[in-house]
Amino acid sequence: EVLDCDCPIVTVPNGIDLCVNVSDYNLDDRFNITIGGQWSLFNVDGLPDPPVINGNILDLTGSTPGAYSLIFMITDSISAQCDDEFTLNVNVIAQPNPGTQDVIPVICEEVSQDLALNSLLINNDPGGIWTFEGMTVNDVINTSILSPGDNIFTYTVENTLCGDSAVQVLVEVGAPPNAGEQSQPQQWCENSGAQVSLDNLLTGAATGG
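RESULT FIELD:
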């Protein structure tokens, strides 16, 4: 076999996966390209907000996850028998999304019930881990483990390329309603016509009853 020594060696893989948070991916350094050339991007699926190429620097921040093709075209003078175009397929991976809290449940302190933590989130990636006070918990908990006041749970999702993302979820536990107690018996003459405030007859009662 006779090799054409005039042809430059350009080696790029068929495809790579990159996280959407990559901002300064140096294509020439990454693939050891020393010959003069120009990188361009082909938006395979016509996605909005594609990555940006500035010279040999690829910036994925703010781009739409999905498939793209990068084309490297040699601009230096080479033999007509040599390949002058190389394609690199890039799959942009979205950052994990833990979602946001949809509702804040308020649980009565004396009530023991099952609570599905996943039901408190919207737009979250599945398969995450719930923690409470530093301990891993199931996605369905019994409210008997909660303390009066604010209880903070954390939901964490991750992938190997982008790392992890987390959201805090609040569950409130309120004291049971207090009807109070009668302060002391009161007596009125049957025909006195006195007006009586029943609220004044109670001590320790919650308002709004």
